[in-house]
């Protein structure tokens, strides 16, 4: 990790007499290591470890997918090309012009949650000859097929797109598949031709296709902060993809997943969707709000990717992220090194001056 990666060389012989300086340095180094260990522990505990106690079964889709169907008591509905087997939910087969979706029938009234999705995108298409991808939803409406990865446009709520096909040939600065997030109150459209770039809040490239190992994505929404993590490299660890603040989403919306194929295709499979409740305390003011009345929005005072705080003050300010802390510590370390060098030079000059008087 970062602490191990920062190489602190032993004091140069010329500085041998600067004992105080060296002790200070050791102290700093130890503090630095300890801080990073703590930071690492914080990051790891930040994302839920899949604690079954907090798993919400009514919002989770797990093998063998009992309770999936069209009966009034079912917790998941599906439509279009969706095929439910005992091992996977196939939203589309590897065939052209298909679209399918699966939707939780129970609205979610949790204020802070984390959704873990195990998915599999695979097909016979060679590189760049496959599409279009999967979308994961937390929206006001459900089961409205349409042009946005099998769901309606002008949706109200949150979408996470796992876009496997590059439509925008001008956007060559990013590689595909590309994962991105969008929040809409229904007034904005998703621009397929530009791969959703005009409305994208953040994103990352991720190799998610034709993997032999399991591939996962986690979406966390808590205190106005939206975080998306991916685990697609068979390393059993989450890698941050999106992390933005100032996101406002109401309670009472529905989770869902959809996928579509066009001229090119893929199998788009959902293996599981597991929703965990995050144990977060809110202020009395926050608790007294009617969370079902919140309109989905993102404060765009800063560029979306740098967006950290909610200026409305409804949500707590967000802590420094790992790399910012690292930069701050690096600056502090450089400052100490400069001090040490200056101190040593001054010390040596004094020694030399003293020698002349002997
Ligand atoms: Ca696309």
From TrEMBL:
Signal peptide: 1-45
Keyword field: Disulfide bond, Glycoprotein, Golgi apparatus, Lectin, Membrane, Metal-binding, Signal, Transmembrane, Transmembrane helix
Primary localization: membrane
A Pfam entry, by short name: Lectin_leg-like
InterPro entries tied to this protein: ConA-like_dom_sf, Intracellular_Lectin-GPT, Lectin_leg, VIP36_lectin
Domain L-type lectin-like, chain residue ranges per copy: 53-278
Annotated membrane topology: Single-pass type I membrane protein; Single-pass membrane protein
TM helices/strands, residue ranges: 325-347
SUPFAM superfamilies per UniProt: Concanavalin A-like lectins/glucanases
GO CC annotations, alphabetized: Golgi membrane
KW Transmembrane helix (keyword) present: yes
Subcellular location: Endomembrane system; Golgi apparatus membrane
Entry keyword Transmembrane helix: yes
UniProt GO MF annotations: carbohydrate binding; metal ion binding
PROSITE patterns for this protein: L_LECTIN_LIKE
Name of the protein in question: L-type lectin-like domain-containing protein
Protein species of origin: Coilia grayii
Organismal lineage: Eukaryota, Metazoa, Chordata, Craniata, Vertebrata
């Amino acid at each position: 990790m970062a602490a191990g990666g920062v190489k602190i060389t032993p004091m140069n012989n010329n500085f041998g007499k600067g004992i105080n300086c060296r002790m200070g340095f050791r102290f700093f180094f130890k503090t630095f290591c300890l801080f990073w260990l703590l930071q690492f522990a914080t990051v790891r505990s930040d994302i839920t470890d899949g604690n079954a106690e907090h798993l919400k079964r009514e919002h989770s889709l797990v093998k063998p997918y009992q309770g999936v169907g069209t009966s009034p008591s079912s917790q998941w509905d599906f439509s279009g090309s969706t095929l439910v087997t005992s091992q996977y939910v196939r939203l589309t087969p590897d065939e052209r012009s298909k679209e399918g979706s699966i939707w939780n029938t129970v609205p979610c009234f949790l204020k802070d949650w984390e959704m873990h999705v195990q998915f599999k995108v695979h097909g016979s298409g060679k590189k760049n000859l496959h599409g279009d991808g999967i979308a994961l939803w937390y929206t006001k409406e459900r089961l409205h097929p349409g042009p946005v990865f099998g769901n309606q446009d002008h949706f109200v709520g949150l979408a996470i797109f796992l876009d496997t096909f590059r439509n925008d040939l001008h956007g060559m600065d990013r590689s595909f598949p590309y994962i991105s997030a969008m929040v809409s109150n229904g007034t904005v459209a998703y621009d397929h031709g530009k791969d959703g770039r005009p409305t994208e809040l953040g994103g990352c490239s991720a190799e998610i296709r034709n993997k032999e190992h399991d591939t996962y994505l986690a979406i966390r929404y808590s205190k106005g902060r939206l975080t998306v993590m991916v685990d697609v490299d068979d390393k059993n660890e989450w890698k941050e993809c999106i992390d933005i603040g100032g996101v406002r989403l109401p309670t009472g919306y529905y989770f869902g997943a959809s996928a579509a194929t066009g001229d090119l295709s893929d199998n788009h499979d959902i293996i599981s969707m597991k929703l965990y409740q995050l144990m977060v305390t809110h202020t009395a003011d926050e608790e007294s709000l009617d969370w079902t009345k919140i309109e989905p929005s993102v404060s765009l005072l800063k560029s979306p990717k740098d967006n950290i705080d909610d200026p409305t003050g409804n949500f707590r300010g967000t802590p420094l992220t790992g790399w910012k802390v690292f930069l701050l510590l690096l600056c502090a370390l450089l400052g100490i090194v400069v001090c040490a060098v200056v101190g040593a030079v001054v010390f040596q000059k004094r020694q030399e001056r003293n020698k002349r008087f002997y």
